[in-house]
Amino acid sequence: MAQWIPADVPIMVEVSEPKAFLGPLLSPELGKSVTAAVENGKTNPKLQQFQAVVAVLEQQLGTDWRTGLRRLAGKGLSFCVGPSGATLLTADGEDEKLLSKLNDIIWQFASSGADQQNQPETADSREYRGVKTWKLGTNEVHTLLGPRLVLGNRMSFLHQVLDLRADAGGRILASSPLFKAAHDAVGKDAVASVFLNLRTLRETPGLKKALEEDGNPVTALLLADTKAALRNASWLALGAYVSGDKLILKTYTDGAAPEASKWTSFSTPPGASAGLLPPLTVPGTIASLSLYRDLHSFYAAKDALFPERTSGLIFFENMMGIFFSGIDLTEGVLSEVRSDVRVVVAKQQYDPAIGTPATQVPAFAAVLRLKEPQRFGETVEEAWQKAIGLANFTRGQQALPGLIIDKANQDGVNYTISYYRPPADNSSGTVDSRYNFRPSLARPGDYVILSSTDALARDLINAVKQAPSTPAKTPLAANSLMEVEGPALSAILEANREQMVRKNMVDKGDSREKAESDIQVLLAALGHLEHATLTLRRDAGQPQAQLEIRFR
Amino acid sequence: MKPDPNDPAWAWAPFQPDGARPWDLRLAAHLYRRAAFGGTWPELQRSLSEGPQATIDRLVHPTPEAAAFNRLYDDYENAAAASAGDGSQAWWLRRMIESPQPLQEQVTLFWHNHFGISNVHVKASASVCRYIQVLRQHGLGRFEALLDAVLAQPAVWICLGARDNGKRNLSDSSIRILMDHYTLGPGSCSDTDAREGARALTGWIISQGELRFVPGEYDATPKKILGQEGDCDRKALVRILATHPATGQWLARQLVRWFISDTAKPSESLLAPLAKQLMSEGNIAKGVEVVLRSNLFFSTEAYRQKVRSPVALALGIIRPLEGRTGTVQLAADLSRLGQELYEPPTIKGWAVGLAWINPLTTLGRAKLAEALLAESGAYGGKLDPAAVASRHNIPANDGGRQFLVDLFLQGDLAPESVAALAAGGSATGSIDARSADLRHVAARLASLPEFQLA
C-alpha cells in the first residue's frame, strides 16, 4: 500500500497478516467475554445503537460480523495519518462481492437519510480518475478498488492517493529512505508494523514536550537513554510478530544516545556475567521488575541528567541526609549498593480482624544488594527506623495514628516490621486505607528488602534464598526486564472494581451504568492476558524495547 | 408608586407577579440560579407555568428520592476521603450537579463559606468530609442543632487551633471567630464574655483525630456569658449563642448577602423580620424560604447583583445543559479560579463578589467555559448544547442560538453582544456543524460579562 501513499505521511500502520495479528482479539472466547460485558451495559444507548446496526448488517449480508470482517479485511489492513490530520484506512479482503454489497447498503441508508433531513449534499458520489468515490457526511470519504476498501476523512487526501495510484507523479512513501530503513529493520517476518517519521512528528508540541529532558529523576532512572536516543532519531518503527501462542512487539530506531554518555553509563551492564538478574517471584506476584542500574553513577551524573534543583529533589536529599546521619548520598550511600535493583508487586492478604480497605493497594517491595552488608547493613536499618520515626512524628502532629515498630524472624532471618494498631471501633464497616501498609525491612545475606508489607518481606526472604545470582537469559545488553502475570493483575483489578467504577464516574463524568460497562469490558479483555514480558536493551547503541504477550 | 426596597413590610412580603414585574423566563432563571445553581429548560418551562411560589415549594421541600441520593453520595464521599485522595471534593461537585435537591447543596456551600473550615489546617480529608456532611444534614434545620453538631466536629476544633485544649482556653482569636463570626456578629460581646465562653469549652481535646471530652480538664467553675450565669458547658454555650437576638440579625445579614446581593448593605430594621423568623422558628429552611419568596429577592436590587463564584459559574453551565462532566478536573480548574472546595482561604470563607474577578480569573473563566464546551479535551465533550436543543424540540431556524441565549442569559444580553452573535453567522447545515457551532456559541455566551452575574 505504501506505493500509493504520499511520502510525507508521518504515521503509517500496516497489518500484512490480519488473521495472525488480530486472531487473539477476534477469538470467540474474547468475543464472548466482551459481548457479555457489553450485555451488562445494555443501558448505554450508543452501545445499543451500535449493536442494532451490526445486527441489521449481519442480516442483510448473510454473515456474522466476525466472518464478515475476515472476508472484508483478511488480506491486509493499513492506516496512515497525512498532513493536517487527514487519515486513510485501507482494507484488503477476499470477497469483492460482499464489499460491494456492504457499500450498497450503507450508501442506500446514508442517501435516504440525507434526503429525509433535506441535506442531499451530505451524501454524494462522483468519479475521479475513472474511479467512483463516495462522500457520507462531513468526515467520511471512500472508494472501492476491487476487493480493497479505501476509507478516509478528506476527499483531497483520497484524490492524492488516487493520483499516485494512476502514476500521475509525486513522491511515494515506499521510496522514502526513512520508510525503507524502518521497513528493513522490521523485516519480513512481521505480521504488522508501525512507521513513525520522527523528523516530522518531533515538531508536534505533544511529542516535543514528551521528548524534552523534564528533569524528573525517576523518569531519567527508568528510561535511561531512551529519550536521548529518540531526540536524535529520524524514525521509530514497531514490528509485531507471532511465535506460537505469543505476540511479540519490537521497537526499532536509528537514534542512539552518545556512547558512554551520562545517559548510558549507569544502565549498561559491563558484560554477560554481570548483567540483569532474573526478576523475583513470590506467591501472588502481579508484576516483577529487574533493572540494571548503577545508582552511584546515576546520582553522580545528576547535575547533567536532571540539573534543575526542584523542591522535591532538595527535600529528598535533606531527608536522606537525616536518615543516613549526614553520610554523602552519592559517595557514601549509593556507592554501597550493587547495580541490580528489583521491584516486586504482589497481591496481599488482609488481617480478618481488621478487614479489607475499600481500595486494595497491592504489596510492593524493592530488593537491593549491598556490596559490604556487614559494614553497611546496620546503617540502612538505622536509616529505615528513622524514616518510620519521622513518619510517626508527622502523623502525630496531625493527630493520626502512628506505626508500632517490632522485630520478627523468618527462617532464621531477623527483620523489622511496623504496623498500625487495629481500630478501637470498626463498627462503621469502613476500613481505613492505612491498613494497606505494614512497612518492613529485611536483610537476608547481602540483600536489603524494603517492603510495604511484612507478608511480602517474608515471601521475598524465601525468594532471594532460592534466586540464582547469575544473569537472566535475556537478550544481550538488556538493562530492564518486567514481567506481568495476567491472572493476578486481573484479580487485583477485580478486587478494586467498585473503586475503578467510582473513579471513572468522577474522572470522566460518566453515569454509573456507563462506568460499570466500561470497566467490565476492560476487565473482560484483560482477563485474556496470561503473561507479558517487557525488555529494554541496547543494540549497537540504539535502545530497543520488546514486549511479549501470551493470551489465555 | 415605586416600592421601597428598604421597607421591611414590602421587602419580605411574598412576591406576587404583576404587570410591572411579570413572571417570565428572566425571573424563573434568576430563582434557579440562586437556589439551584441554574435551571434546565424543562425546569424553567415548568416554573413559568406553575408560577414562583409553587416553584419555591418544589425547591424547598425535599423530594422522596433525596434521602436515598444523599446516603449514596455520603458513601461515595466517605470512601473517596478514606482512600487518602482528594476525590471527595470531586464527589461533592458531582452531587451538586446531580442532586434532586440542589437548594440543599447551595445551603451546604453557604455554611461551608460561613464556617470557613479548611483542610489546609485540618490535613485530613475524611474529617472535613464528615464536617461537610454535618453541614448538609443540619444546614436547613435549627441553627442551634447545626452549631452544636459543628462544634462536635474535630475538623472545626483543629481549624480553630485547639488540638490540645485542656484547661488552657481557646485563643482569643479562636473564641472571637466563634462569637463574632459564627454567631453573634462583630461587636456583640465583651472581652469578658469571650473569656468566659472559652472557659465553657475547656475539657475538649483532639486525640487520634477524634474530639474527646476529658472531665478532669473541664473548668467547672461558674461562668457569666452574655448576662447568663451558671455552670455553662459547651451545650449551654451553644444554646446561649444560637438563641441570642444578635445571632439572628447576623445570620439574616449573611443570608441576604448569599441569596440576594453581594453589595447590599441592609439596615438593621430591614433585617429584623427575617432575623425574628430565624429565631422564632429556629429553622433555617424557613428563613431561606422567606428570602426566596420575597419581593426583595425578585427586585432589581437582587437581579444580577451577585458575581458568580467559580463553582456557581461552572454549575451554571453544566446544570442547564443537563450534562455530567468529570469533576476531578473541574475541582482542579475551580481551584485555579480561586475556589477550592474544602479549602476556603480564611476562617471567614471566600472573599466573594467582585473579588472573584480580576484579569487573570476573567481569562481563566473564559478558558473554563471553552474547555467545558469543547468537543474533546479534558472534559471529553460531554456537554452538547445541540443535543439539548434537539431533545426539547427547539426549532432550528437559527441553528439553536436563540435557545442558548434564552437558556443562559434570557433577555439580559447587551445589544452589542446580540449583534456580535448574529454577525457570527449560524451553522444550519449538517448536524456536526450545528453541534460545533452551538458549542462555540455557548462558550462565548458563558464568557460574557452578563453571564458572570448571577
Supply the key terms.
heterodimer, A: 552 residues, alpha+beta, globular, B: 454 residues, mainly alpha, two-stranded antiparallel ribbon, 24 helices, 56% helix
Give the oligomeric state.
heterodimer
Query: What is the typical, i.e. mean, pLDDT of chain B?
Result: 91
Strand content of chain A: 15-25%
| Cα-to-Cα separation, first versus last residue of chain A | 33 Å
Biggest sheet: strand arrangement of chain B: 1-2
Domain count of chain A: the total is 3
Would you kindly provide a written description of the structure presented here, covering whatever features stand out?
The complex is a heterodimer of chains A (552) and B (454). With 552 residues, chain A is of the alpha+beta class. Helix content of chain A is 39%, strand content 24%. Chain A has 20 helices and 20 strands. Chain A has a 20-stranded antiparallel sheet, with helices on both faces. In chain A, strand 19 and strand 20 form a beta hairpin. In chain A, helix 2 runs antiparallel to helix 20, helix 14 crosses helix 16 and helix 19 crosses helix 20. Chain A starts with 10 loop residues before the first strand and ends with a strand. By secondary structure, chain B is mainly alpha-helical. Chain B has a domain of 136 residues. Helices cover 56% and strands 3% of the residues of chain B. The model of chain B has no long low-confidence stretch (mean pLDDT 91). At the A-B interface, helix 19 of A face helix 5, helix 6, helix 19 and helix 24 of B.
